[in-house]
Write a sequence for this structure.
């Protein structure tokens, strides 16, 4: 307990450290149920030798219990959606840390502008916990127009709601249409099945794409279920993916890899996954870890047989002047079996604003003899960032970054890594997160751009 004071013998007396230490000790008692613990410092001064003796008079008081939990401010959100995020229930022993965790859980929902949790004494050993929330809009309607040299003009739009009818259910319907492609997606997730920390969801999609040499049509459904443990930091779950794909060639001279993909096939895959997340904020994290491991096992029926495993990890840590250090890395392995190769659309590709920012989207990849990007069976990349506020009040931030990674057809060759560095602007705008990245390819090859500009915008879903 005395270590919390951070005071050293024969060192100058520091009143600021004393006050901070008393608060820590008070919280320690509060974490054991003594909500009204009273810590009084008694200082005996010796003016002759300029020293002081410190004593702490501790009156921990009675152990306190939560008599009632009152929810206020929620016009739309159901009471149970808020109560299930609380670490404390009525009748539980008071706990300072659990109150702080409860507040953080509610903030991470991103349903509220502000969250306040207060306690009011209602008896000798009882308190009423008052949870006040200030709701904000959780629905999003977005629309955009784009142009590509091949796809020409295109439109995209989505409608999403992260708190459907105040129930906490996430729903999103999106579409992307161009002269060469169409994509439709419906995603539904109930993060609390029967008010238990179990999420169930389903993703249904249909995609059509006309490439230079082939056309592809894919329809799929992906149901999922997951359970949360350890104050919701550990998630263990499984998905099942069932897709039907047809690829038609539109060239007299297809490459070998493309020729292998022609035809119609069914993919049936089981995808177990595990994640561990301790981020202090899911939107603007400043400390904590986020790790995940997933494996796709295709071959439970269907025509494809392959296994694909991806391990991802990232770490945030506060530095100085509100700067935040961020490192992340990912490694992936894919392998066919039963005489089957890994399908080209399931291979690894790097490049884009989410990994190797000095390369165009999916253009960091092995190529065949015709110069087609064919993907690889191994990938590895990592990045380090220095994140700093530009205008904190507007949630406008900048980031200096350095990326390293590559994709290989077989085996890891860490002597053959690619590098980029650059600057990124991030704005958590009222319409959703916006990212603008300018990156320099540090060793561009003949068919690569030396500087890559990228932009992304999405709803907070």
């Amino acid at each position: 307990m005395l270590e919390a004071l951070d005071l050293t013998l024969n060192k100058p007396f520091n009143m600021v450290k004393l006050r901070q230490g008393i608060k820590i000790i008070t919280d320690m008692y509060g974490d054991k149920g003594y909500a009204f613990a009273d810590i009084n410092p008694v200082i005996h001064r010796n003016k002759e030798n300029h020293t002081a003796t410190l004593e702490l008079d501790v009156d921990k008081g009675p152990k306190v219990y939560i008599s009632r939990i009152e929810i206020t401010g929620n016009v739309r959100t159901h009471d149970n959606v808020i109560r299930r995020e609380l670490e404390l229930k009525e009748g539980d022993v008071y706990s300072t840390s659990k109150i702080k965790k409860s507040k953080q859980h509610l903030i991470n929902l991103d349903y509220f502008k502000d969250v306040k949790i207060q306690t009011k004494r209602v008896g000798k050993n009882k308190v009423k916990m008052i949870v006040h929330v200030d709701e904000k809009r959780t629905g999003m309607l977005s629309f955009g127009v784009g142009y590509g040299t091949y796809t020409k003009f295109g439109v995209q739009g989505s409608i999403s709601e992260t708190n459907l009818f105040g129930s906490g259910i996430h729903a999103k319907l999106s579409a992307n249409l161009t002269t060469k492609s169409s994509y439709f997606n419906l995603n539904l997730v109930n993060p609390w099945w029967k008010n238990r920390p179990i999420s169930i969801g389903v993703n249904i999609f249909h995609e059509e794409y006309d490439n230079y040499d082939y056309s592809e049509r894919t329809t799929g459904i992906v149901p999922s279920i997951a359970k949360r443990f350890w104050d919701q930091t550990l998630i263990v779950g499984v998905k099942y993916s069932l897709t039907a794909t047809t690829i038609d060639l539109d060239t007299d001279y297809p490459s070998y890899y493309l020729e292998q993909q022609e035809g119609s096939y069914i993919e049936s895959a089981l995808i177990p996954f595990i994640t561990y997340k301790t981020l202090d904020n899911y939107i603007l994290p400043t400390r904590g870890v986020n790790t995940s491991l997933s494996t796709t096992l295709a071959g439970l029926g269907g025509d494809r047989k392959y296994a694909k495993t991806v391990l991802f990890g990232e770490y945030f840590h506060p530095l100085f002047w509100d700067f935040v250090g961020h490192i992340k890395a990912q490694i992936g392995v894919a392998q066919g079996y039963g005489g089957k190769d890994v399908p080209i659309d399931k291979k690894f590709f790097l490049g884009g604003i989410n990994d190797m920012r000095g390369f165009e989207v999916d253009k960091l990849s092995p190529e065949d003899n015709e110069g087609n990007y064919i993907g690889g069976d191994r990938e590895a990349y990592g990045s380090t960032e220095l994140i700093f506020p530009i205008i904190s009040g507007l949630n406008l931030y900048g980031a200096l970054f350095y990326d390293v990674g590559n994709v290989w057809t077989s085996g890891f060759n860490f002597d053959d890594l690619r590098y980029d560095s650059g600057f990124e602007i991030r704005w958590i705008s009222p319409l959703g997160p916006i990212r603008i990245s300018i990156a320099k390819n540090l060793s561009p090859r003949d068919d690569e751009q030396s500087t890559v500009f990228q932009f992304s915008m999405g709803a907070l879903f």
